[in-house]
Amino acid sequence: TYVVTDNCIKCKYMDCVEVCPVDCFYEGENMLVIHPDECIDCGVCEPECPADAIKPDTEPGLEKWLEVNNDYASKWPNITSKKDAPADAKEFDGIEGKFEKYFS
Ligand code: SF4
Ligand code: F3S
Asked: Which ligand has the minimum distance to the alpha carbon of residue 98?
């Protein structure tokens, strides 16, 4: 599966939603997650993310993010079309530790 990681938080560009062939993105207030059981590993979303937040879970060190994606995909509503990104998305691109401060 692919997973959404820290840099999505408060950037939330949602370009990923547009390209996913199986509509497996779920929406929190500040972030999206991928449902690991629904993702078919096509990989098309990874290069679409302007914040470079989407990674294959085969990359080392992503266990925490796999857990976050798995947990919240079943709590948050499905999102199938792109909305406007937050007006201040750019200001949050690349900030460290967003999960601790802004995850929602
Ligand atoms: Fe959707 Fe493909 Fe990205 Fe998985 S890898 S979330 S199926 S676009
Ligand atoms: Fe987040 Fe990137 Fe999608 S910022 S909403 S994973 S396009």
From this structure: 2
* pLDDT tens sequence across 34-81: 999 999 999 999 999 999 999 999 999 999 999 999 999 999 999 999
* The two three-digit tokens of residue 65, written as one number: 């993010």
The ipTM assigned to this model is 0.98
With b meaning 16 or more CB within 10 Å and e meaning fewer, what string describes 92-104? beeeeebbeeeee
Q: Which of 24, 38, 59, 78 to mutate to test the pocket of ligand 1 (most atoms within 8 A of CB)?
A: 24
Domains along the sequence of the chain with CATH: 2-77 (3.30.70.20)
